[in-house]
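Exercise: predict the fold of this chain.
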Amino acid sequence: MRYWILVLFFANLAHATINMSENQIKKLGITDVQIQMTPTDAIGPFIGTFEFSDENSYNYSLNSEGTVINILKKQGDSVRKGEVICKIASSELLGASYEIKELSGRYKIINGQAKKDANLYADGIISQREAQNSQLEAMSLKAKIASLVGRFQFIGADLTPIDGMAFTIRAKRSGVITQAPSMGGEKINPFAPYMKISNTNSLNAIIMVSPKLVDSIQKGAIVFDDEGKTLGKVNAVGVAVNRTNNSAQVNARITAHQETFHVGTSMEMYISVSQLNKWVVLPKSSLTKYKNKDICFVKTPKGFEPKNVEILKSFKNSVAVKPDGFTVKTHVANNGIINLKGALSGMGFE
């Protein structure tokens, strides 16, 4: 190891670049990582809580009171579209089911009469007005039936009740049950979701922000963690303040996927408040001091080149520096820094 450092030291006394072969880099235990570029002027940390995305979820609710009769799929169960997930009782659905049956019978008769009247009009036996009246009545009944059937389809319920009172509820989409009644007999309140199917790969974060700072956050702002890694983007900024915790709510769409992200858990998050400029996020392990300046070592085709950096913000395991001289493809050394610094000793650079 000392031999290699001495070779590098004398080989680089007059050069800004520390020339090294891949074999030398490997023997000295030097590794590199690609830099990250992030929007500047981040604020935080804030506490963000993971939730399933409503955009990729389906909520089940009723317009009136109901009762859960039987639960076939519980919270955490995977379901396929069309599978039976539960059975419920609802006076509203029961009345609508009987009305569909009655209207369907009337429509069958009136639609038949409308067809006959159309033929009679064609033969000149009845007037156009009489033929049109029959057709309009049939169309009106058809629209009423479609409206009632649509209500059943919207909530995933079969049209015909079981045993004259219970309705089968089916999955409107494939996914995972993320909300469900705990037992049969539970009351279903009007307009309140009683069951939910979600895509577990689609997460949002609810971020609580001080009212003094929320006005500086815009839709589309980048959200990242305490290491500077991008988590997602802000898709909604609340205008109201929660009196309980004196915070405004910011919603973010999570685009990063990690096994550690679980619904209901929280973590520290930062939000960018400007997207005009960029900063570069480097691991703290990539920085060292040289002549009272912070430097990193940029990977080049011939080895590594020392570079002065100006630290703008410090995170838990990383730092944000000015982007001057960096590109999105830049790699910096993050292990074996002491060996590179040893090779650099005695050769100043600006």
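Check your answer against the key: DSSP finds six helices and 24 strands in the chain.
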